[in-house]
Structure formats: C-alpha cells, structure tokens
C-alpha cells in the first residue's frame, strides 16, 4: 500500500476536501450575491466583481489540486501546501487595503480565508508530509 493510500492519509485528505469545498461554497455565495446586487441595481464595484470571481476560481483550482494530491501527486500536494498558507493571507491583506468594501463582503471573504487557512494545519502537518517525502 502506497503511503498516500493509507487510511489516516485518506481521512486527512477527506477533511481537506471538505474545508476546500466550504471555501468554494462560500466563494460561490459571494459571487452570487454580487450578481444579484448588480442585477437589482445596487452599487457593485469592479473590485468586488474581480475579487468574487478570483476567489471562486481559486477555490476551484485548489479543490482540483487537492484531488490530484489525494491520488498521490506530490507536485499537487506541494502546491496545496503553498496555497493553504498564501491565499488566506492574501485575502485578508487585500481586503484590509481595499477601500469602500461593504462589511458583509469583508466578513464573508474572511470566512473564505478561514476555511482555506484551516487546511494549512492539515496539509503541512507531519501525517501528510510523511506521505509525500522529498525526492532524493
């Protein structure tokens, strides 16, 4: 049995997939809210459009990479490790720097950051690192 096929590794990836799916669901909700606000004539900035689209796309790519990593792809695993640390920081920092964002938008973006950030503790933990040893 390969290391990435062990029950504890599969369980860890199951949790990561669940967290990334939550990140995607919240991202989709934000994008939907931006669409609805726009259709109903409320003010929606180009930043909100770009941000909602970008975070949703990031969630889709992250889920795809987690799926590849769960199948044993070391390169996908390394990318997920990086994403799980960088994306939450980027989401929060950009939202702090941006002016004029509605409070609800920032709060939901922070929820996205927390969901994907929680994966960092799992994918950077010893259990999954041991499943993907460095090539010699």
Note the run of SSEs as H and E: HHHHH
**Alpha carbon gyration radius:** 17 Å
- Helix/strand structural class: mainly alpha
Structural domain tally: 1
Number of strands: 0
Structure description:
The chain is mainly α and 136 residues long. It has one domain (19-131). It contains five helices and no strands. The longest helix has 33 residues, at 7-39.
Task: Outline the secondary-structure elements.
Elements: H1 7-39, H2 46-70, H3 74-97, H4 103-123, H5 126-131
Helix pairs in contact: 1-2, 1-4, 2-3, 3-4
Q: Could you list some keywords that capture this structure?
A:
mainly alpha, 136 residues, 5 helices, 80% helix
Task: Sum this structure up briefly.
The chain is an all-alpha fold and 136 residues long.
């Amino acid at each position: 049995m390969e290391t990435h096929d062990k029950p504890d590794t599969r369980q860890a990836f199951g949790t990561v997939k669940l967290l990334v799916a939550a990140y995607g669901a919240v991202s989709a909700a934000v994008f939907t809210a931006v669409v609805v606000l726009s259709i109903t004539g409320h003010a929606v900035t180009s930043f909100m459009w770009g941000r909602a689209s970008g975070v949703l796309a990031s969630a889709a790519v992250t889920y795809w990479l987690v799926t590849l990593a769960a199948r044993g792809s070391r390169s996908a695993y390394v990318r997920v490790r990086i994403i799980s640390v960088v994306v939450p920081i980027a989401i929060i920092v950009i939202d702090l720097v941006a002016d004029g964002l509605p409070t609800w938008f920032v709060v939901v973006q922070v929820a996205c950051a927390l969901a994907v950030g929680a994966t960092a503790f799992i994918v950077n933990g010893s259990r999954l690192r041991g499943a993907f040893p460095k090539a010699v």
